Amino acid sequence: MSVMKRMSMIFKSKANKALDRMEDPRETLDYSYQRQLEMLQKVRRGVADVATSRKRLELQINQLEGQQNKLTDQGKKALQVGREDLAREALTRRAGLDGQLGDLRAQYQQLQGEEEKLTLASQRLQAKVDSFRTRKETIKATYTAAEAQTKINEAFSGISEEMGDVGLAIQRAEEKTETMKARAGAIDELLASGALEDFSGPKDDIQAELDRMGSGPGVDLELERLKAELGQGPAPKELNQGSSAAQAQQQAQDTPQQAPWPQKPGGAQ
User: Fold this and answer.
1) Residue 134 to residue 72: CA distance in whole angstroms
2) 233-243 b/e with 16+ CB inside 10 Å = b?
3) Residue 228: which of 245, 247, 242, 214 has the closest Cα?
4) pTM assigned to the model
């Protein structure tokens, strides 16, 4: 296939698609109905023209028949007065009119037949035009309803697509919200445990130092206690002191108390 043929085919296909998009069936139906009305009008005009010609022939025939009757009467009167020559002349002219009347009557019959045919065709065409008009209006109404339904469906389709986008946006917003809540909770836990220092509030150096000193001995004491339990070192002094005090208290409880010496009168021992 040559380049020109391909270009022509592409152009025709593009033009056909463009025409399909531009074409409105309702306008096409109205145009077809208008053309049919124009055709019906032409047929009716033709019937009127044939009827007019037939009427003219009819007038001519009547006129010639009147002349023919007049010549017949003249021939009779001529014979009555003994003028045979005049009677012959009247009959001769009457014979000439007979030929004309024959031709006119033949034309009249032909025009009458054409008029009947055109009248019948006009009636049939009128019936077809009326039927087409009814069908046209029905198709137009159906097409209009289908077009409206299509627009509604397209609108619903667009709304559905937009609602889908809105749903995705809501889902992303919810996911981001949950992520931010989890992050905020993690930061709160880190701040509470001391792993993350809070620089947003006022800083107290003295309290921070006291807290550090208070927590230090407790850790060391716990470490020494664990070593003593494992036999890896002597017990801490705090533990020994606590044990000695506990033993002394226990001995005091176990040893019976002696009654005090009675005092002699005058305070002598």
Assistant:
1) 61
2) eeebeeeeeee
3) 242
4) 0.46
